[in-house]
Amino acid sequence: MVAQGQFTILKQPLGFIKVLQWIFAIFAFSTCGSYSGMFKMSVECKNRSESDLGIEVEFEYPFRLHQVYFDAPTCKGENPERLFLVGDYSSSAEFFVTIGVFSFLYAMASLSVYCFLLEKYRENCKGPQIDFVVSAVFAFMWLVSSCAWAKGLSDVKTATDPERVVTLIAACEEPENQCREVNDPKVSGLNTSVAFGFINLILWIGNLWFVFKETGWMAAFGGTYVPSQEKQPAPDSFAQEGYAQQDPYAGSQGGYQPEYGQQGYNEEGGYSQGYEQQPTSFSNQM
């Protein structure tokens, strides 16, 4: 199959953009789906023995933060209390990753068709028309999922802000106790995933133009579309309405036939009715 492939299509915009869509779809869902982060806080109680200066809170995709818990000291000689983060942002994250995975699969399938089934793809323009509709759907899905995930990421940053999480600890309400953040979570990978989402949106919108040119709709809308192999009227035979009727010299035999049996010119300078009336011999004429 590799030997029979038409890989020159990859140098054209139609195939080259599909390669970019395939690559950036991987970047989008991998940077979001493989994320795991951590932030650290410290609670210093009046009684130093009850303090905890390294409270670590880990969270990851799909960001069901209401299931993430940590233990914090009470500063009252009691066992540490278990606290949970606030919020569930799995819907927007999973939606974003799902669109990325399906875009990756469709781009890979399209590249296979372009390289090995290009003639069937362009046959009757049905392949490009289906490709255009599916690409338009993916462009819209990238718009929705990228916007939803951008909003979800903003909420994740707020819910995992150590300064906000500290307020959930009861011991931090006491003025004699000191609570502070130690490390903020690193969310640069999540920021990159949002950027890749909007890059995919631009790629899929740009791809619509090149697929649209393959559909044949442009020529149809412009009035220049001519269906292939239209039935042309067969030329009639020349004997019916062609050259035979227009040629005044054409006779029943297809050409000019002189009639020797009609009027002729004799040697005396007059016309005769035919060669059969001429003298049969020179002696009779004398």
Task: Please characterize this protein's 3D structure.
The chain is an alpha+beta fold. It folds into 2 domains: 7-222, no CATH class; 245-279, no CATH class. The protein contains 10 helices and 7 strands. It has helices at residues 13-33, 90-116, 118-122, 126-159, 162-165, 188-215, 217-222, 238-241, 243-246, 282-285; strands at residues 36-44, 52-60, 69-72, 81-84, 178-183, 264-265, 271-272. The strands form 3 sheets. A 3-stranded antiparallel sheet has the order 2-1-5, with no helix packed on it. A two-stranded antiparallel ribbon has the order 3-4. The protein is rod-shaped. The N and C termini lie far apart (101 Å). This is MARVEL domain-containing protein.
